């Protein structure tokens, strides 16, 4: 008689190295996809997250400059400004007011406030403000003011600031912007001869 014959069926051979390589590749692809999604979300948040508006002085004009010595040394100033408010966001801005102040040698002489308004998304608006100051006493800066008038040039600082809010879903996010200008005025011609403006952070 013939001896019994046995057939052994083995599963297909898969090298362990290939299995490890495939698992490692899947993990790398998963990490890469997570990094891409994170960068995309961060970029979207950076682009669409509200930012403060931008203020630019488009026009600055001196209408009146007066100097008095009696009964005390005082100053009359009328200054007209046109300020461009630029909205860089994808949401409209509702601003409450625009405040413009004028300073001489670090001392605030006065300020003017304009009404509120609305700036559309990715748009800009022009706001006019007039500073009208009469007989502002210059007791502490009298000597400096006399010297400036004697040399024919006086330097003023203007500070413009706007406050508002952005409606983002159910949130009311506050926004503000501020710009300062150094303006030199010819005391004889009463013309602004130079100005240097820069935003304040």
UniProtKB/TrEMBL annotation:
Q: From which residue to which does the signal peptide run?
A: none
Say where the protein is mainly found: membrane
Keyword ATP-binding among UniProt keywords:
no
Q: Which domain of life is it from?
A: Eukaryota
Membrane topology is: Single-pass membrane protein
Residues forming the Late embryogenesis abundant protein LEA-2 subgroup domain are: 82-176
One Pfam family this sequence matches: LEA_2
Keywords carried by this UniProt record? Membrane, Transmembrane, Transmembrane helix
Q: Which GO terms describe its biological process?
A: defense response to other organism
Task: Tell me where the transmembrane regions lie.
Answer: 29-49
Per UniProt, subcellular location reads as: Membrane
SUPFAM superfamilies named among the record's database cross-references: LEA14-like (SSF117070)
What InterPro entries does this protein's entry cite? LEA_2 (IPR004864), NDR1-like (IPR044839)
* KW Isomerase (keyword) present: no
UniProt GO cellular component terms = membrane
- Name it: Late embryogenesis abundant protein LEA-2 subgroup domain-containing protein
